[in-house]
């Protein structure tokens, strides 16, 4: 599989989880769409883009167990979180409930929104070792009458844990509490059925484990919540009437981009057209799905999961530390506990001395080497990391 990717052969790339890696045929699809746009930008963006994006969303929605009408493209999952966070009509004293395992950029988003609105951002401890059966109960026990929304990762960034969410989403809905899931690492790494999961808002990246080009992500919103969601940039979608009909006086300038979005869904009109931008990454998502299907990705995913766990077991057998969860609580990323008091120094040493690209993360005073194993990962790369950690005495 390594020959299908564009990775530097001089680097041991064990960090697919941060930004992903794009296969050659998918990168070629990206360039195809960029060239098509440049041949006639007015036709491409103004008259063709809505239909092209619709087709791409339909392919992605089928893969995610969702309806294309409930899905829009965004550049990344952090944008999806921001879109929802900035849209909510929060009042002073309202509570956003979350865990202590959330991605730092999204923590920053909520702190900013709560500071501006007077809402409260409450983090619930999810202790280690992780017990999946206690997860939903811990969060629900922290609910108060002021809880407006539960924000939670599907697969955590720092600790690489898969959080079981179906029961949490169902219980929250029974209590009239909205749910927003940060699924940045989930698509392509674990099976998804968004309609069955039942989160009110779900955002995920396609450029990580689905292997799409950088800047391809989505926001999924249940139909009854779509009127609450506003775009960070107000553009032509806000000029169209509620029935999708064009306001002809506003479009008298002949801006074809607006005309292309007349008649579209409310979510699509508001969020999909926000002025001139490169949509090639979004249009390349079907090519990424084709690549995964062609190469039997479920088998690669399962094998990668087992290889990651085997590496963790070997390292922990040497350093004597316990894992933070059971095997089933991880996907293709594993957080290997290490004995280090200088995580950044360890990361730098691994890269500068051994050419190993891998993140070293921290959570509640513990340090982890978060290894990503993908179909292209070579056995010698995993061995190189194992040897380097042993040489570092961690």
Describe the structure.
- The chain is of the alpha/beta class and 394 residues long.
- The chain has two domains: 25-289, Aspartate Aminotransferase, domain 2 (3-Layer(aba) Sandwich), CATH 3.40.640; 296-392, Aspartate Aminotransferase, domain 1.
- 42% of the residues lie in helices and 15% in strands.
- It contains 15 helices and twelve strands.
- It has helices at residues 16-19, 24-39, 41-64, 77-87, 104-117, 135-141, 166-174, 194-197, 256-261, 266-272, 280-283, 285-294, 297-319, 343-354, 379-392; strands spanning 12-13, 71-74, 95-99, 120-124, 147-153, 178-183, 201-205, 217-221, 333-338, 356-357, 360-363, 366-372.
- The strands form three sheets. Strands 2-8-7-6-5-3-4 form a seven-stranded mixed sheet, with helices on both faces.
- Helix 4 runs parallel beside helix 5 (104-117).
- The chain is globular and about 65 Å long.
- Residues 242-258 have low confidence and may be disordered.
What key phrases describe this protein's structure?
394 residues, alpha/beta, Aspartate Aminotransferase, domain 2, Aspartate Aminotransferase, domain 1, 2 domains, seven-stranded mixed sheet, three-stranded antiparallel sheet, 42% helix, globular
């Amino acid at each position: 599989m390594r020959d299908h990717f564009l990775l530097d052969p001089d680097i041991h790339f064990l960090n697919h989880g941060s930004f992903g890696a794009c296969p050659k045929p998918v990168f070629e699809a990206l360039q195809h769409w960029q060239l098509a746009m440049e041949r006639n930008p007015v036709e491409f963006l103004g008259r063709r883009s809505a239909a092209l994006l619709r087709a791409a969303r339909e392919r992605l929605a089928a893969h995610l167990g969702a309806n294309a009408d409930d899905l829009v493209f965004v550049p990344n999952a952090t944008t999806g979180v921001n879109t929802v966070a900035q849209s909510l009509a929060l009042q002073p004293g309202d509570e956003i409930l979350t865990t202590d395992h959330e991605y730092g950029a999204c923590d920053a988003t909520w702190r900013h929104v709560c500071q501006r609105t007077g809402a409260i951002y409450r983090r619930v401890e999810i202790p280690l070792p992780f017990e999946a059966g206690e997860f939903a109960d811990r969060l629900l026990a922290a609910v108060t009458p002021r809880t407006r929304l539960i924000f939670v990762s599907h697969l955590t960034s720092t600790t690489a844990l898969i959080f079981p969410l179906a029961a949490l989403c169902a219980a929250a809905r029974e209590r009239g509490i909205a749910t927003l899931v940060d699924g940045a690492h989930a698509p392509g790494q674990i099976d998804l059925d968004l309609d069955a999961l039942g989160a009110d808002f779900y955002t995920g990246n396609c450029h990580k484990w689905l292997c799409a080009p950088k800047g391809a992500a989505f926001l999924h919103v249940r139909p009854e919540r779509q009127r609450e969601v506003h775009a960070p940039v107000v553009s032509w979608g806000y000029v169209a009437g509620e029935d999708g009909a064009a306001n002809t006086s506003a479009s008298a300038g002949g801006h074809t981009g607006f005309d292309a979005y007349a008649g579209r869904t409310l979510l699509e009109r508001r969020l999909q057209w926000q002025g001139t931008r490169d949509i090639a990454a979004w249009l390349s998502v079907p090519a990424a799905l084709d690549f995964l299907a062609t190469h039997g990705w479920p088998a690669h995913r399962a094998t990668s999961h087992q290889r990651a766990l085997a590496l963790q077991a070997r390292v922990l057998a040497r350093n004597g530390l316990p894992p933070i969860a059971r095997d089933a609580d991880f996907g293709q990323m594993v957080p290997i506990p290490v004995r280090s008091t200088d995580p950044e120094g360890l990361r730098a040493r691994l890269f500068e001395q051994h050419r190993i690209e891998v993140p070293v993360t921290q959570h509640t005073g513990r340090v982890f080497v978060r290894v990503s194993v993908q179909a292209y990962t070579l056995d010698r790369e995993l061995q190189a990391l194992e040897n380097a950690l042993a040489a570092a005495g961690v």
